[in-house]
Structure to design on (160 residues):
């Protein structure tokens, strides 16, 4: 008879990224930035993001200090967003920083079952306007996550 159960956290057993992400998602109850990842306007057609780390549905990511080019509008003013795209089926590039601009913002994919379905999810870092001349009106939309200890202390205070 085949063994129908596997103990993951045991000597000589393999803890996969999926195992790790599922548990981390239970421990950290929100998506967001752990530290860094500040988005600023560098010049008329470039955003800048500082190095940092974050977590999305238990999947930890690292961002390297980067300049992100943004195509200026050919006419009028467009809306823009900078976001993280995670596709667990894309083995060559599972996480990407992407820019979207248009008359309206493309709705982002939010899949809380990404760790079970090997799916796609996205997380917005900032919105902005882009005209024929420059990037403007940058609004950072990513939030800093609270530590587990802080959330626990808040829960204890709420129970008192």
């Amino acid at each position: 008879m085949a063994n129908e159960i596997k103990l993951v956290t045991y000597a000589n057993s393999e803890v996969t990224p999926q195992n790790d992400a599922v548990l981390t998602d239970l421990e950290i109850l929100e998506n967001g930035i752990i530290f860094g990842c500040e988005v600023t306007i560098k010049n008329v057609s470039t955003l800048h993001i500082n190095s940092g780390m974050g977590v999305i549905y238990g999947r930890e990511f690292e961002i390297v200090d980067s300049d992100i080019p943004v195509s200026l509008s050919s006419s009028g003013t467009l809306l823009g967003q900078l976001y993280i795209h995670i596709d667990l089926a894309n083995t060559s590039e599972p996480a990407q920083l992407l820019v979207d601009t248009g008359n309206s913002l493309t709705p982002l994919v939010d899949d809380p079952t990404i760790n079970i379905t090997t799916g796609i999810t996205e997380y917005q870092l900032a919105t902005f306007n882009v005209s024929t001349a420059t990037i403007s009106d940058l609004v950072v939309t990513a939030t800093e996550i609270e530590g587990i200890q802080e959330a626990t202390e808040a829960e204890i205070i709420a129970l008192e």
User: Anything to note?
Assistant: Strands lie at 32-36, 39-43, 46-49, 52-56, 59-63, 66-69, 78-87, 95-102, 120-130, 135-140.
